[in-house]
Every structure is written in C-alpha cells, then in structure tokens.
Amino acid sequence: MDSVDEILIKKLPKNEVDKFNRIFFGRKDHSTLRLKDETKKASENDNFDVFGYSFDATKEQLRQPRVLRLGLVQHSIVLPTHKPITEQRTAIFHKVKKIIEIAASEGVKILCLQETWAMPFFLCTREKEKWSQFAESAQFGPSTMFLSELAKKHEMVIISPILEIDENATWWNTAVVINEKGHYLGKHRKNHLPSVGSFSETAYYSPGNTNHPVFDTKYAKIAINICYGRHHALNWLMFGLNGAEIVFNPAATISEFGESFWGIEARNAAIANGYFTCSINRVGTEEFNLNDKVIKRTYYGSSYVTAPNGIRTPMMSRQKDGLLTAEVDLNACRQVKDQWGFNMTSRLDMYAESLQNIVENKGDNQ
Amino acid sequence: MDSVDEILIKKLPKNEVDKFNRIFFGRKDHSTLRLKDETKKASENDNFDVFGYSFDATKEQLRQPRVLRLGLVQHSIVLPTHKPITEQRTAIFHKVKKIIEIAASEGVKILCLQETWAMPFFLCTREKEKWSQFAESAQFGPSTMFLSELAKKHEMVIISPILEIDENATWWNTAVVINEKGHYLGKHRKNHLPSVGSFSETAYYSPGNTNHPVFDTKYAKIAINICYGRHHALNWLMFGLNGAEIVFNPAATISEFGESFWGIEARNAAIANGYFTCSINRVGTEEFNLNDKVIKRTYYGSSYVTAPNGIRTPMMSRQKDGLLTAEVDLNACRQVKDQWGFNMTSRLDMYAESLQNIVENKGDNQ
C-alpha cells in the first residue's frame, strides 16, 4: 500500500470527503501549491514524488506575513550495504542533490533531510566497528561540505542529520544546521536513544549533551527533535519554550515499530506547543549481511507537515523517494497561541516543582 | 454525520480495510465484546448506543492477568435549560441511571461520566449567578449521593465530574471519585482552565489546587485529566509519574474547537505515558436564552479508549447517547514500557532543571 491518506482521499465516497477531511485533517480541502512543469518532468525522470501544500494565517495590522517554503526530503539508499562506504555515500549525494535542486527551484528556504541521511541505517545489525567509517565530523565532514555548497548556492538553510564522531572518537546522532550562506551554524545531538527490538542505539552512541537549542536562522527559529525524541513530550516542550517556530523530526522508523503513532506524535506536539512540525522518515528496504544471516529493514516514509492549529498535510508515499514542500506563514504560531492559550495556562511553576520532587524521589505532593 | 470512524470502517473498499486499520487504529480487527441480549434491547428501547471492545496483553509467568471492564458514558441533557434546576438534574439522573445499570450488567467495574455531567454546560453564557445552584458539594452534593448508591449496589468505582462549590463559596471544576463501597474516595480539581472563544471558565472558577492525584482503587490506579487539561502534556505526564494505569479525560467540547485534535491528544498521552486513556465528551445541542439572544452549543461525543500501545477503539457516535465498554488487561502498561522504554529514557533530571531555569526567567541552558 502506498499511503493511508491516499486511500482516504481517493476512495472515500465523494459526499463524505469534505466532512471527513474537516474532522480528520482539520480542514475541508488541502490547499495545494502549483508546481512548475520542470518539477513534474524531473520527478518523473528520476522517479521521486513532489507534493506541495500551503497553510494560511490571518492577515495582521502590525506584522507583515512571514511566508516561506519548507522542504522535507525522504529517500532510499542507492547501493547495496556491502559496497565501499565512499561509493555508497556518493551515490546518495548524487540522488539527494537532484531533489535539493528541485526544492530550490520551487523556492524552498529551509530543507531537512532524514535521520543519518547519508548512510544505511545499520543500527539494527548490532555491529559497530564495521560501520564506523560512516561516522563523520559535524563541522568538517563530507555531508556538511557537500550540503554547504548547495546551501550557499540556493540561499537555503539545510538541516543535515548525520552520524557524528567527535575528536574523542565518541559517536553521536546529530543534526547539523547549515545556514543560507553555507556556513556551519551549529548542531543538536539526539536527546533520547532507543533500545527497542533490534535497534539498540545506546550501544553505538550517548544521549545528547546539547540540551534543546533553537537556531535563529535568517528565515525562522528552528529546532530538531531527532527520531525517538518524538515520543518524549518534554523534548517537544523545551524546543517550544526556547522559541522554536518550526521543529523538524528526522526519523528512521519501520512499520513494526508503531507506524500507528507516526501521525499522532508530531501532530500532537504542533498543537500543544504552537509551532509547525515536519516529520521525515526514510523509505525503502535495506539489507545487511550478518554472518550467515540477511537482515532486512523496510522504512515507511510517510513524511508530513502539521501546522500549529493541528491541520496536517497528507503523508508522502510509504515507498517512494520524495520532496514535500509546504508554504507556511510563521505568524500562525502566535495566532494559535492567542486563540488557544495553552502557553498562558501552562502552570510551568507547578510542574518545575513537581518534576523536581519526582527526581529527588520525594514523590509529587499530591 | 454520525462518526468519522464509521465512514472509514463501513465505506472503505474491503480490500483496503485491514491495511488501513493496522496503520490507523494500530490493529487489523477491532476485538469486539459480545454483549447481552438484554443490553441490546435496553439500548433500543431507550435510544442509546452500547459498544464493547477488548484489548489483550501478553500472558506472564509471575503475574495473573488483571482484566477488568471500563465504562464511558456520553449523554445529552434532557430538559430545556430554563426549567427548574432540580427538574433538569433529576431528568439527567434518570437517564444516566439506566445506562449505569446496563454497564453494571455488562460487568463494568470503573465508570466515568462526562464533564459536569449533571447539568447543561452553561459556561458559554458568561452568566454566573443565574446558574450557581448547579454547583454542589463534592462530598455531600446530590450527584455524589445519587452515584454512591449505584456504586455500592454494583461494586463499581464511579468518577463523577461536577461543578463543585466549597465552604467558601468558591467554585471548582472537579472530578469526584466514589469507590466500590459507595464511599467518597477523593477528588481532583481541573488544573488548566480555558478561556477560548465563548467559553471563559476562568470567570467561573479557579485553576485546580489538588495537583495530580492518583486514586488507588480496588480495581486499578486511576486519575482524571479534566477536559482542557488534555492539551497539556505535563498534566498527562504527572498522572503517569504518580502511578496511574488509567487516565480518564471527561470533556465538554464542540466541533468548532479542535475536533481534529480529539483523536490525537489522549491517544498521544496513552503512548507517551504507558497507560490507558478514556476520552469522554457530551453529545447533543444545548440552548440558552440570553437576554434577546439564543445561544446554541452542539457537542460531538466521539468517546473512545486508547491502550498504552496506541491501539484505539472506534469512536462513539457524534450525536447519540451511549456507553462504551472496554475490557483491558492492566498488565499491558508494564509490558509496553518494557517494549518501548519511554520511561527509562525520559531524562527527567534534565527537564526538571530546564523547567526551573525557564520558570526563573534564566532561559534554558542551551
């Protein structure tokens, strides 16, 4: 099946679609961006989807609209996982470059790639040494170098989730932010690491030590909640309290692990915190030879964007590479806060105290 | 339209339903409870729906299954809102009693009613004095007296969300917990109060001062997150940290205010915190005469239950009174925590510190 949303949109009886969309997606019609003819041609030639949607905000008297286009890229790996590392990476670079060029031509100003986008997600093998050469420097590694050029060329902010190795040979699961001049702006290291089923990330790297940075880019205040961090409400909350207008959630997740959550968590976070969320998951099947066994993992894509008022785009394909562009007006963030008041009614002082009591094993003062 | 879930289940092409259900609801088939013939008759005679679903847990070696049935009741008011208060309340008592008796005959052991279940939800009128006689004592008021008898008779724990007035004539939005012996066990006062659109609850009562109590009943450890509190991730979190196995969310909410969130928030909370959530919303249209105007508010029901693994039941009707019974095995809570590890990876010490910094206006140490 390619997409649950596709079933809904295409196969529901016509007289039910409007009502269904309003309750399910939060609005009657998806507001679709008109894409260029060249974009359609390129996507057909290179076999990736391109979808575009827009989100409105109310016109204000004192602030100009702050409209910009976001880009989410989901892609499969290109070469088999036993090929030389440089070949594997170069093949991915080649594929992703084409998609970024299209994004640029469609006016995307902030773009985010999937978790550890430049390598297969080998964390299911439980092998470490064999794969260590995929780890790279956040500031000077090949992924950052490659994307910096594209960022500068297109005046685009790019978020590059990589496997980082630092000066001490410690690994981290890291999102690098490259600004619109092609400069390294900073990084965030994944705060919450899963040990779920065959994925045991704590065997590879440590929980992040960068807290909850928000990057004040030319276009928007952005943050990154990496993969499993989406299960943690406090992670989402802190990015919001630190000022994020958009939080990206680059992921690598398979259907057996909670595909039914995928449409829930980032959307809940957008609503609760009054910001846009952008969920990105890799696609395709990855095979690993492990002694006598072959391990296969299939990622279900389904990238999507949610606005602060809970309206979300349809999800991308479960199988196919693709670019999702979303035109957003950042003024929506404050407008939704004014409407709903979750920020005003948050009672953070109570929770700071309660959490401290829990941490000190004193129990909450019920 | 009666229910979005009904559209999905009944109108999707047959060959897509299984796949759709797995991704959307979290499992292929809804596991339906067989209800008694008398139940069906009663529901037809008195024009309310009864649905039953069950959730499994894995059999364990050292713990017996802890299986019990929960009951969620959604109902409309009975008499016009200008009628004498006692008449209005008695008519609701009469209707709800029938539903509770059916719940008892189906083996329900913990039952929860909707927010301020024994009155019209007049908070949209912005009038206060006129309605003040609906406020009642948590421990000795008519709602508690009425339900205590039923609780004792059926050895049923009942959660009774009321409009409370205390000795100081202060109002609170309160959930009373009555135990299986018919005794008042305690209460929780709504932590987060909306001032959204025409609903300005802060004009009526104060934010709760009872923190996040979990009630250790004969059948399960339960808590209540009242209505607008569902938008606050920290509210859900604290009930979980304090040990809740089931959190009820009694509500009174209209379609114009985020019906598209309704299926998201309580479900997200169940996943994030490893407990069952039970969402209950009133139904029907309520009319209020306000000077020369008539104000109407229509509630969309749609009550549902979510398991800690994110599987949820279909939602009840958007229009009709009803009882939703769910058979749960509380062992699922720990099993899901063992599988997903969100509790183990929560890093609460980091967040206690970050929140304290925010509260003290020091900013998070990014």
Automatic annotation (TrEMBL), chains A, B:
GO terms for biological process: beta-alanine biosynthetic process via 3-ureidopropionate. InterPro entries: Aliph_Amidase/BUP, C-N_Hydrolase, C-N_Hydrolase_sf. Keywords: Hydrolase. Residues 68-330 form the CN hydrolase domain. Coiled coil: none annotated. This is CN hydrolase domain-containing protein. PROSITE patterns: CN_HYDROLASE. GO terms for molecular function: beta-ureidopropionase activity. The keyword Hydrolase applies. It comes from the Eukaryota. SUPFAM superfamilies: Carbon-nitrogen hydrolase (SSF56317). Gene3D superfamilies: Carbon-nitrogen hydrolase.
